[in-house]
Amino acid sequence: MDDQPVAGAVLDVYDGRDGLWNPEHGVIERPEGWEFLPTGDAFVTRRVKAAGDYWFVWRPRSRSVPHRRLLGLLAPTTAIEAARAEAEATLEVRSARQAQGAHYRARREDDYRGELTEAIVAFLDFVPEHAELAATIAADAAGRAGEVENGRVGRTRKLSLDQRADLAARALIRHRHTDYEDRLEAEVWDDEYHLPPGQGRCPTGRRRVPAPAPGATSALVGLPGESCRHRRPARPSQTGSMLVVHATKKLLERLRPAALAGPETSSTTALGSWYATVLFWHPQVALFVNEPSLLPVLMPLAPAVTLLERFPAALATVLVAHGAAEGVISTELVEMEHHVLAKTTNRSIVGMMNEFASLADAWRDQDGEADLLGLSLRLAATPCGPLYRRHVSPDRELAAWLRESAGGAGG
């Protein structure tokens, strides 16, 4: 046992199999006259901590629990008893204050939802005969987007009220009045390869195909009489630098890769993995979206067989337009020398791709021509739900990443 710390020191101790343990002092003993106060009563805990002498008691991490968990405090018994007595004496007063505070917060939330509802109605600007529908959409959108602590657009203060109303209305209409959910489900693949259609499923969960005649050779796997396709195409192994592009089903149908990377494969590029889909314009266009920053990149699809080889150059052009330094771009392109395709797994990114595709299609119709670089930059300024807690839009997210990269390089 190491030297016993003084009782007045504020320590982090862990409840281990050998007793209380501290990283600096090793196994330690509970000071005399101290007792354990479990978590759960914030008032008593604050009063005990204000007294000055206490230890935090944690449950250590384990294989099944990756994070430590606070169990409570160890503190002098006198401080705990005094705090509990004060809590009992002030219970009625504190309850009244809590009720008053809850009523005040509820009134503020009602006022805010009313303001957001009015802003959504103004944004929709429906003709009078559809005013009832506008009111219904506005009320539902405001109630959903303005829910407390839900992380949705209605809770952010980085956007104006009109911007919040715009995004909240679009989100509700997209989910409830379009085929958005069906499209989203269609673009997310499960972990198994899609096999040719057949009858039923084999015990491994793969689809059955008609069994060959007795003595015949299976056309799928070349084994006599085997009715289930148990073999998969070989997946590429990850060695060295690697760019992983998660392609939607409709893009994979055009690229027709010999094999797909597994979920364990990850990008080594600084920007991380990308998602990609195809836009059925004339000519067809590929839309790439960066997973961490949601940065969009539009580029011609044809020829499809060289799409991934041409993507680094298209990305470099977009990064230059966003003001990225030449060194940052060069380093990123070097890491993109090798590339693999994978299936989409992140519903949020697929949803953002669908949103970008709709916006790009609308803006292309307005402008009359497809300026892919201009559309990429315009899409990058779009506020995105997954970025509300960080920098709101992909261009700002990229700018913050570039500043961090420059600071790291300078350091």
Give the structural class. alpha/beta
- Named CATH architecture of the largest domain: 2-Layer Sandwich
Here the CATH topology of the largest domain equals Nucleotidyltransferase, domain 5
Low-confidence stretches: 189-235
Main sheet specs: 6 strands, mixed
| Average residue-wise pLDDT | 80
- How far is the first residue's CA from the last residue's CA? 41 Å
Number of domain units: 3
The number of helical segments is: 12
- The CATH class assignment of the largest domain is Alpha Beta
H-E string: EEEEHEEHHHHHEHEEEHHEHHH
Percent range of helical residues: 40-55%
Shape: flat
Q: Please report which band the strand proportion falls in: under 5%, 5-15%, 15-25%, 25-35%, 35-45% or over 45%.
A: 5-15%
